[in-house]
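2024-03-11 09:14:02 DEBUG pipeline.ingest accepted 1 chain
2024-03-11 09:14:02 DEBUG pipeline.ingest length=181
2024-03-11 09:14:03 DEBUG pipeline.predict start
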Amino acid sequence: MRALPAVRFSECVGCVVLPVSGGRQRGRGSEMTASKERVKTFEIPQRLRDECHHLGSLSCSEILLHRNAALPWFILVPRTQLEDFLDLPEYLRRDVLDECAVLSAFIKQQLGYGKVNFAGLGNVVRAMHLHIIGRRVGDSCWPQPVWNNLPSGQVYGDEQLRKWQTLLVERAGLRARSLSV
């Protein structure tokens, strides 16, 4: 699995802002302005924080893992105020999709799942977030979607969380954050 390049991200209405010498900022594309009026605070929605472990950060997104351990259900949360993936500027859409592909490869190559479901709905949690879920024939809700079909009760142990987090650091360039189990 290829590692993603490190890019600093600052929220500016869905745009990547790269540091430039002298303390100024520049972004990709002519639409970038670093005016203070446009800069917004990014925050992971409370419902996602409640239902997931926050593993860390990639270049454009925060990486969460659903607390239900029945299936490896990762949630990638791009740091943006935009709600819909297709509204992202083309270059950022490409970068976020690359991060999704890295998680998909991790699920297939490291966790041994042959199928990955990928979705971005946003009907319940409006903030942009993308689901990357490992699936296999015969899993606990196969062939149904995970929503409203995933059995409850299975949880990740501290050791498994740390192992997956370490693998993501090594394989995907995850910047790990402290885990609270």
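2024-03-11 09:14:41 DEBUG pipeline.report Helices lie at 46-51, 90-110, 158-172.
2024-03-11 09:14:41 DEBUG pipeline.predict end
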